[in-house]
Structures are given as structure tokens and as C-alpha cells.
Amino acid sequence: MRPGLFVVGIAALAACGSVLAQDPPATRYGVAGHGSLELKVPGGWRPQARSRSEPPMALLRFTPASGNAFDVQITAGWLDPAKSDRRADALKARVQSAANAALKDAVEKEAKVLELRGAQGQGYYYSLTDKAPGPGEFKYLTQGIVPVGDLTVAFTILHREAASEDKEKALRMLAGAAHSKAEVPAAAAPSPDASEKLRIAEHDKVYELSVPVSKLVLAIPKAGLTQAPAGAHPRYFQFAGNVIVSGWFDSAAGFKGIQEFWKGESEGLKRQGMTVANVEFTKVGNWEVVLYDLPTKVATFPNLRANWVQAGTWIDLHLSVPKPGADGRAKMLEMLRAIEVRERQ
Fold it and tell me: What is the dihedral angle through the alpha carbons of 67, 69, 70, 71, rounded to the nearest 10 degrees?
């Protein structure tokens, strides 16, 4: 099943008291400036985590240590209470609307929205089955929204078998999620192998970024950019200036094409209550690019996502302009054209 806005159901979560003693310790994932999300991640699951500062959110993904039996995707974000309605009836209406819209691609004729009673809030979810999954796509999907303290957590659970133990584990994990006001200290962040950690070399005119396990080097012109806090993810980076440049290095296997990439990104933004406008796809050299605007009550802010795949590595860039203006897209494209990618000799 494609990771669209689908949400699956589960039987009562209250009957899991007998397994609490076996629960793993909680892992904390930082949400920039707003504490952290605490999750008890099942043993044997492989986590990937990255963060964003605008809007503040943690982007999490959990997959099996081997194989591809499931794929759990979680977005935990902080939203301005003055601009976001997190009342139970509002959340339920959002999930029901998404479920109804998704029925055209589902086996089911009706999408039933159920409650997900979490430790720090009540959310909703629904179940659908893809009636015509493409090659390699998942047939079953679980997706929903649950408030966790001051955070809003949107989740997608994809799996290949109707009766999936991993789906049950994921929903228990979400039901037990907690919001901590404490920021994630460096010592609490995952400690990846040194070969997977991002390295930044500062030269006279450029920053050179590389990951030892990758063959690629990313050269970003300084052009007034300064390094900014980049969160706990070992391969995430951020530079601030007239154009904000952020991104990460990842495996090429994770990139499924610009259309599929943008589908997931845009739906994630919408789940966070953000409106996406004026979407435009283009290419800049080897970069696959999507430009879009994020309108707010104050102004409209232009954004750009660019993806480069080469030699087994996927580089994902996010460019944005902190001040609104008609020339925002031109500024971002000019910066992107100045960024170089080369293979290490």
C-alpha cells in the first residue's frame, strides 16, 4: 500500500498490562525547542531519526533489522496552540475526512475510525486495504493522529500480512508515547558507527560535507551561511543565512523518486496543519527539485526540496527563505546551482 493518508484499527490496547514488564526502556527523540518524544521501541527494530526546526518536529522511521515486512513512519511536531485545533472532535473529523477520501483505492467500502487512547492524549485511526498495490508496495496500512502532551503525533504503519504482530507492537508503542519537557542531551542521542557520522570541513569559501561510508562530498558555498544546531540525527546538517540550507545523507535505497518523495512530504506537512501551495517540479543539474509555498497568516514563505542520488547515496536538501519576498524562489535556485556534489577520489 502507498503511504497515503490511511489509518488502521486495532483491538483494545488496554489489555496489554501483562507485557508492561517486558517493555524496552524509553528512547527520547528531540523536537527542537520543545523537549522530546519518548518511545519504547520494540527490540530488533531499526530506527532512523531526523529533526527540523521550522516547524519544530522529529521525523522517525522504524524498519526491520532485515527484510521489509513493515515500515513505521512517525512525525512528532509542536504546533502553535493559537493556530491548531487539537480537540478530540477536531482530530476525529480530520481522520474521518482522510479515511473517506482514501476509500477509492481501498478494498473496504467503509472506513471506520476508532479511538487510540494514549498515555497523554486521545487520538484516532482507521484501517484500509489497498485493492491494487504496485510492485513492492504494502497491502495493509495503519495511520492516525494522537496528541502526546504538547506534541501532535501522526503515524503510518505499513505491513504485508493482515495479522501483523509488528503492527500491534507499533500501536502499543504509540499508546505509551510520552512528551518530556527536557531537551535531549547529547549523551542520550543514539551513537551510530563513526563511519555513518556526518563530517563538516570548513574552508575559506565553502563547507565540505561528507560521511565516511559514502563516496559523495557535498560542497556548500559559505555566502554568509553559518552552521546552526542540527538536532541529534548523525547525518543531518543546517546552515542559516539569507537562505536556510538543511538536509541529510542517506542510503539511495530510501529514495523512490521525486513524486513518491513529495507525496510523503506534502502529506506530512498537511498532517501538521500546514497548507502547501504553488507546487512546481523541475530539475537543476542532477538535482530532482520540488518548489512550494507555505502560506501563513503573516506572509507566504517559499521552500525548495532537492534530491541527488549517486553512488549508493541519497542527499536530500531543504532550502527556505526566512523572510518573504517575490524573489524567494530565485534566491533558492541560485543557491542550489552553486552547491556542488562530487565523488571522493
Answer: 30
DSSP alpha helices (H): ranges in the chain?
88-102, 165-175, 258-271, 328-338
Q: What residues does each domain of the chain span?
A: 14-183, 194-343
Within 8 A by CB and 6+ apart from 191, the residues are none
Closest CA to 94 of 275, 297, 270, 296: 270
Question: What are 276's three cell numbers?
Answer: 502547501
Report residue 176: phi and psi, to 5°: -95, 5
Q: Over the stretch 152-172, which tens digit does the pLDDT of each residue have?
A: 999 999 988 888 899 999 999
- CATH architecture of the domain with residue range 14-183: Sandwich (2.60)
Residue 66 is inside which H or E element, if any? none
The listed range with the strongest mean pLDDT (16-20, 221-225, 279-283) is 279-283
Q: Could you tell me the fold of the domain covering 194-343?
A: Protein Transport Mog1p; Chain A (3.40.1000)
Q: What global pTM score does this model have?
A: 0.53
Eight-state DSSP code of residue 196: G
Residue with cell 513493515: 70
Reduce the DSSP state of residue 318 to 3 states and report it.
strand
- Reduced to 3 states, what is the DSSP secondary structure of residue 95? helix
Q: How far apart are CA 129 and CA 106, in angstroms?
A: 5
